[in-house]
Amino acid sequence: MKVDLLIVGAGPAGMAAALAAAPSGARIAILDDNPATGGQIWRDGPQAHLPAQARAYRQQLEALANVEWLPCTRVVALAGPKALLLEDPTRGWIIHYDKLILCTGARELLLPFPGWTLPGVTGAGGLQALIKGGLPVAGERIVVAGSGPLLLASAATAQDNGAQVLNIAEQAHWSAVAGFAAQLPRWPGKLLQACTLFHLGYRANSHIVEALGDGRLQAVRLSIGGRIREVACDRLACGFGLIANLQLGQALGCRIELNALAVDGWQATSLADHYAAGESTGFGGSEKALVEGAIAGHAAVGEHDAARRLWPRRHHWQGFAKALNAAFALRDEVKHLARPETLLCRCEDVPLAAVRDQAGWSQAKMASRCGMGACQGRVCAAAAQVLFDWPQPAPRSPLSPARIDTLLHLQ
Q1: b/e map of 71-95 (b: 16 or more CB within 10 Å)?
Q2: pTM for this predicted structure
């Protein structure tokens, strides 16, 4: 299979890139490991309520004859110059491309703390995704903790589906939260969204200390303004921000700066004919992802004037991203919640004590089975980067679990 433009990731950035590039007549393919477009932020499901913009983008993409949608599809490995090995539930195959746009998004950053492996404890975004997928939470008592606006969004999703949200513990200081709120009039839509999502149980300068329970979550211990409080609950949703999905970009050889794919004004990476947009280039929400995706789409098909006209809008939303990331930077307190016996790698039951004296990720893997489980280090390696300042490990093929018959295409 050969295309002019391949887009990896069908969240807001990928959808915008495809719509921007499509009028050129280029043959375009867009893939995602989800069954529907929208990514994590516009995630579909039985209990999801997609915004009008997401529905409009989806309808526009479905109407384009020169855009092929590849759902439930993952990149397994590099297959040569400008070629990737792909797999979906029924087959594996190699796709060749002239230009590539990486819109690989981000995943939640999960940090270990005592009790974080108890049933009933999830990520903040993880709980939101589960609810959208049909998880019943009506009548359940839920605590949300961690950092960033995702806490409010997760709490709102739970509450809209009948849950009782008891507390939202934000680790950032009140001064940081207030400073961020004071800047929101620059982005009126975000100000309105913040007012809509605000919850009376929201507390800054607060964080999870421990999850408690016998066999499953029964209560949490929170530090609220420096005072310890124990709260009985049924679920804990805890997320400490995001970490960019850089594996494919790293494997291709794209330059990484500040834990993101480095791009120029055209959203071009350091590798010729390879572009990137959205959360993989820095966190800033759907608006930033949309405009970056559109710039990348126009640039990839040679429409530089159209791309340049979008630069002021990108600058506007990059300002929001800068304010957001500064306000919700992680404090040292939440980086030291885990005890020596707390599991760092829960796939392989590796405690913090088994790896904390190692010099880096490679040494930790040689001294234990850390990172060798089902997630292949996506959770524990990211946590180790924050806890110990270890660089993210370089990816190795296959980039995701694959069937033997798929891997045979590499022969």
Answers
A1: eebbbbbbbeebebbbbeeeebebb
A2: 0.93
